[in-house]
């Protein structure tokens, strides 16, 4: 090779094949890296995936509840679906009721 920065007139075939293979591998690695970065940047898809995992975990835990609790969940499910616009307020109210129940049990007993 030339040290002046010029391209040589002839590159041995074996060396050219090695260079082509290196270029192909580098392109594949770059494509994989770009795909990985794009997946990380896709917040909407990641949030959906996380929500799916949370729903699955909740379903498993509900299945492990005793029968009376499962019936209560079954009765509340249609109400929860209708109350979606007020989900945060309802969740806060439920948390407040649970906390109040725990506090009352602790101090009443």
Q: Can you describe this structure?
A:
The structure is a single chain. This protein has 109 residues and is mainly alpha-helical. It has helices at 13-41, 43-63, 67-82, 87-108. 0% of the residues are buried.
List keywords for this structure.
109 residues, mainly alpha, 4 helices
Radius of gyration: 30 Å
- The helicity comes to over 70%
- Can you count the helices? 4
Biggest sheet statistics: none
Number of strands: 0
Distance between the termini: 89 Å
The fraction of residues in strands falls at under 5%
Structural class: mainly alpha
Mean pLDDT: 81
Poorly predicted spans = none
The gross shape turns out to be rod-shaped
Question: Order of SSEs, N→C?
Answer: HHHH
Give a quick precis of the structure.
The chain has 109 residues and is an all-alpha fold. The chain has helices at residues 13-41, 43-63, 67-82, 87-108. 81% of the residues lie in helices and 0% in strands.
